[in-house]
Amino acid sequence: MRTLFAALLLVATPALAQPLEALQPLEELQLLAEQPVEGMPGGNLSGLAWCGDALWAVSDREDDRLYRLAATGGVLHAEAEVFQAPAPPDSGQPWGLRMRTWVASLARGGALDFEGLSCDAKGNRYLLSEAHAGVLQLPPAGAGSWLNLPPGLVRQARASGMLLHFNALFEGIAVDPAGERLWLAAERERRGLLLLHKQQSSWRCTGGCVLLAEGGREAPPAQLGSRPQARDFSDVALFQGRLFTLERQAHRICRRKLETGQVEHCWSFANEVLTDARRYSQPFGVAEGLWVDAQGAWIGVDNGRKTRGDGEKRPVVWRFAAPAAGGWSETP
Question: Which residues form a coiled coil (predicted)?
Fold first, then answer.
């Protein structure tokens, strides 16, 4: 009887079924530096990655360029690398969703809506198009091309409850150094992680594309009140055999297992960025790009051209130190 009662209680109160860590205060990451980005006329920094010897960024309002970020005097100066993307392939998204995305691009720019950036050890850059659920590969030299993704990728994601809503599609990408495995993050309602493997010139899902799919809402950091927000992913990064997800609304970074997407440990950055000086007027998070290394994490901010409390109008990149105790490999 006691066992039955406990099971019913978990069903009736989903919050109690969350990992214990989700119910406890998280370790706060330390902000080491904050650098505004100068020279991105389209603004809307949406993806971030360390490629080769520099930090690179992409905007979801510009379809023909990447930006190399060079630090000078506390400011990151964006140097554009222009490219021409071929027409994207048909992703299998429903007509209504594609039309809403197309109409939105006419008003705001960025028909390809690049929302993620990653790179491999050979210098290839991978740009994730939210609008077309596709990945554009840009080699160090030569023309770009769209990856040959599995035709059932979008169908499997939608069957798991993801990619059903306008402006809530694929939002993050991570590629392993060999360029043979690819992780995609679906943004929200429902959020999730998908894994693809390269096989010669195409990409396939082994045992299904979907690693993780979850919905629901959770309370934001105390600075934002108590109204629950939809769980989300705004980017994903790969480091030391683990995935790291940027969870924008919760203002945290979480380490997850490569094979399942199961959460292992999380760290918060809320205290550092939810100050009066760094706050924006909108009720949603602005952290869009993530890159993790041994020394810490880079987080790119998409301010949507809005002005924050201290008057800063430019996109911003935050540099956080790795966790004090054990670094990113800390055991839960």
Answer: none
Cα–Cα dist 91/70, whole Å: 35
Shortest CA distance to 151 belongs to which of 210, 187, 205?
205
133, 173 in Cβ contact below 8 A?
Answer: no
CATH code for the structural domain at 25-323: 2.120.10
Distance in angstroms (rounded) separating the CA atoms of residues 116 and 119: 11
Cα–Cα distance, 298 to 290 (Å, whole number): 6
CA distance 323 to 27: 8
- Alpha-carbon distance of 198 to 318, in angstroms, equals 33
The answer for residues whose C-beta is within 8 angstroms of residue 237's C-beta and 6 or more apart is 118, 174, 243, 244, 246, 290, 291, 292, 297
- DSSP type of residue 232: B
- Name the burial class of residue 173, with classes exposed (0-12), middle (13-18) and buried (19+) by CB atoms within 10 angstroms of its CB: buried
Residue 223 DSSP label: G
Q: What's the average pLDDT block by block, 10 residues per block, for the chain (332 residues)? A: 38 37 76 96 92 96 96 95 94 86 82 96 97 96 94 95 93 97 96 96 92 94 89 97 96 95 96 94 85 97 91 96 88 59
Q: How far is CA 204 from CA 123, 183, 200, 321, in A?
A: 22, 12, 10, 36
Tell me whether residue 65 is exposed, middle or buried, using C-beta atoms within 10 angstroms of its C-beta: 0 to 12, 13 to 18, 19 or more. middle
